[in-house]
Amino acid sequence: MALLALVCLASLLWGAGDVGPARAWSVLMGQGDPEARFVVGSLRLPRTLIGLMVGVALGVAGALLQAVTRNPLAEPGLLGVSAGAAFAVALALVFGATATTMRVGVAQLGAMAGCLCVLGVARFSGAGNDPVRLVLAGAALTGLLLSLTSLLLLFDQRAADEIRFWIVGSLSGRRLDHLLSLLPSLLLAGVIVLAVARPLAALALGERVASGLGHRPGLIRLLVIVAVALLVGAATATAGPIVFIGLVVPFAARALAGPDIRRTLWLCLPLGPLMVITADIVSRLLVAPSELPLGVLTALCGAPVLVAVVRARRLPTL
Questions:
Q1: Smallest Cα–Cα separation from 108: which of 171, 25, 192?
Q2: Euclidean distance between CA atoms 153 and 142, whole angstroms
Q3: Burial letters for 47-84: b for 16+ Cβ neighbours within 10 Å, e otherwise?
Q4: Distance CA 291, CA 303 (A)
Q5: Alpha-helical runs (H) found in the chain
Q6: Tens digit of each residue's pLDDT (9 = 90 or more) over 211-239
Q7: CA atoms of 283 and 231, how far apart (whole Å)
Q8: 30 — alpha (psi -120 to 50), left (phi > 0) or beta?
Q9: Running DSSP on this structure, what letter comes out for residue 289?
Q10: Structural domain boundaries of the chain?
Q11: Radius of gyration for the chain, computed over Cα atoms and rounded to the nearest angstrom
């Protein structure tokens, strides 16, 4: 939490523009010139707050997916959940959707469809017992959906410009009204996560054990699908598809807290925003005065983690 507070402060102080740390600090102290106040209050503060929410959403969604599939490689960006949300939003943009709340709802439906495909593959094809096979199936679904999303660019030039900017994944240009559209989904998903945390811990011991303890595995999976759809859909509609956060954050949380899903979920709350905001700061400074898209940077950093996990001598099933 202390690291997260420092990173949030750094996000307000540093950026790709002319307003440096000294001018930004004067704004935080209640002074500063009008340009610095605008940059800090209207540009950096909203993207920092949205980075907090997006980090929480993607980190918790990744932990839930890994727990319910019992697969350490399950991640919304790898298994087609984020791609489903992205395709749904792109389709809505082509048909003229402009309201942020409408985009969030459509993205959540797309994420739910992607999540159902993931769990269907894991449950009925036997891929759930092989983490690498499940990732390959998710990669195929992701490739298909991204191809369909690219195809939509040919039909509507107005939507094409917005889709191109949004599809790479970024916190740049986000406003406080985007944050307000995130909050209802996060609150509802939080209630669901609190309800399924203990049953998920029992489900990790097997379906028979969970049933013997009075839990209903089918209902648990359904609630997890709804929670993941709410979290990933809201995050994707706001910041675009950002990959590997849902893989790296739960991996780090388990390394620190152990295999208990309840501890993992709690630790994902600070670790998710910590990773997203840190990556956002680096994306601003790496090619200043321009900005590197956040989704590109997380992919560059997350891919080696995926390779390291796959190449591990023993890849455990959760």
A1: 192
A2: 17
A3: bbbbbbbbbbbbbbbbbbbbbbbbbbbbbbbbbbbbbb
A4: 21
A5: 2-13, 21-28, 34-38, 45-69, 81-94, 100-124, 131-152, 157-167, 176-203, 207-212, 217-239, 245-257, 261-285, 294-310
A6: 777 788 888 888 988 999 899 988 988 88
A7: 23
A8: left
A9: T
A10: 73-310
A11: 19
Q: Tell me: the pLDDT tens digits for 116-163?
A: 877 776 666 555 556 667 777 778 888 888 888 878 777 766 667 667
Omega prior to 46 cis, within 30 of 0 = no
- Please, what is the average pLDDT of the chain? 83
Decide: helix, strand or coil at residue 287. Answer: coil
* CATH code for residues 73-310: 1.10.3470.10
Give pLDDT tens digits for 159-191. Answer: 676 677 677 788 887 788 778 878 888 999 999
DSSP string, 220-266: HHHHHHHHHHHHHHHHHHHH----SHHHHHHHHHHHHH-S-HHHHHH
Are 260 and 201 in contact by the 8 Å Cβ rule? The answer is yes
- The token pair that represents 41 in the structure block: 């209050």
Tell me the per-residue pLDDT of 27-80, one tens digit each, with 9 for 90 and over: 888 887 888 899 898 889 999 999 999 999 999 999 998 888 887 878 888 788
